Amino acid sequence: MTIITHNRRRSRLSTLIDQPGGVSVGTALKRAHVNLAEYEARSRQVIEEQVSALAAMTPPSGPDEASAALDKAYGRSSAVIDAAGPFEMRDICTAAANLCDLIDAAPEDQAFDWRIVTVHAQALRLLLTLPTEADDARAQVLESLKDVLKAKVPGAKD
Amino acid sequence: MRGMNGVGETLRESAVFNFDGAMTMVIDDSPFAMELTAQALLGFGIKVRHTCADAAEAIKILQNHPVDLILVDCEMPGMSGYEFVRWLRRSGLDPNAYAPVIMTAAHVRRSKVSEARDCGANFLITKPFSAGVLLERIVWVAKDNRPFLEVGDYFGPDRRFREEPWPGPERRSEEIRKAEFEAQRRGSIDL
């Protein structure tokens, strides 16, 4: 197979970052955290909206609608991760990623067990209401979701 | 964290970077995710110059405006992030075709893993990620000086990160030819 190598080139960005001035990593991260903190309440609202929408989803009436419905559920679950990502809500992200994994692994020639979506929506709601110090309860919720993944997707990662 | 050509090396708190004037583009179909990314970048001193809700909007801008850094969401309706990066690398636009590209994803579908590797992006970050990880990756792609390769369908930075020799027998034809040439040359010198 032919390989064409283009010479290494220095990006303009690499020149810019070494210019005099700028901010230290410590300051940059502090500023980023301050900026993001203003969005934490909105983030929670977005997560709650997406979880409610997931919970309200009804199973598709036929195979023709199945793919679109799964894509929608996948999109909502991804939106939960998008919103929770910067705010240390790792359990929320893990639960949502679990649902994404299950939808992604769903065989196209078989009907998807829609209870999976409902169970994840309920679990996400529970995680949102649990007090921050309820580590054991959170771990238990995530463990039960992981069991669903293991049962439905042979060879799923631990 | 594993060090791989600088990847995973934690940045020193006192290290200073200047992103003033960097033309940055963020492409994301989710307005909220876009806002979160823009706010984190603003903290680093990066003012996002172009925010695009889809790849088509980004393509129009890239035809006429040089860009120094692109952050693009993987999953978008219409042209996906993977398809966008593939287009960019083959666009022939100079310097944009070689711009550092960081892809972001809430989740990567199993069917898209190879697409993520082969589309030509410099880096893929999966969420959740902290502001620290984002900054570290931006600095890393800024300093990423891997050559660009055209191999079959692939056009992008050299995907071979590791510099240690492969423990098995060499299978790359150009390396085999090089080794043969070197052996012949050494033989000639011995004579």
From TrEMBL, chain A:
Domain of life, source organism: Bacteria
> What protein am I looking at?
Chemotaxis protein CheE
> What is this organism's lineage?
Bacteria, Pseudomonadati, Pseudomonadota, Alphaproteobacteria, Caulobacterales
Automatic annotation (TrEMBL), chain B:
Enumerate the spans annotated as Response regulatory domain. 23-142
Q: Where are the 4-aspartylphosphate modifications? A: 73
- Region Disordered: list its residue ranges: 163-191
The record's InterPro entries line, in alphabetical order, gives: Bact_response_regulator (IPR050595), CheY-like_superfamily (IPR011006), Sig_transdc_resp-reg_receiver (IPR001789)
Keyword Metal-binding among record annotations: no
Q: Which UniProt keywords apply?
A: Phosphoprotein
Q: Which Pfam families match?
A: Response_reg
Name used for this protein in its record: Response regulator
Its source organism is Brevundimonas guildfordensis
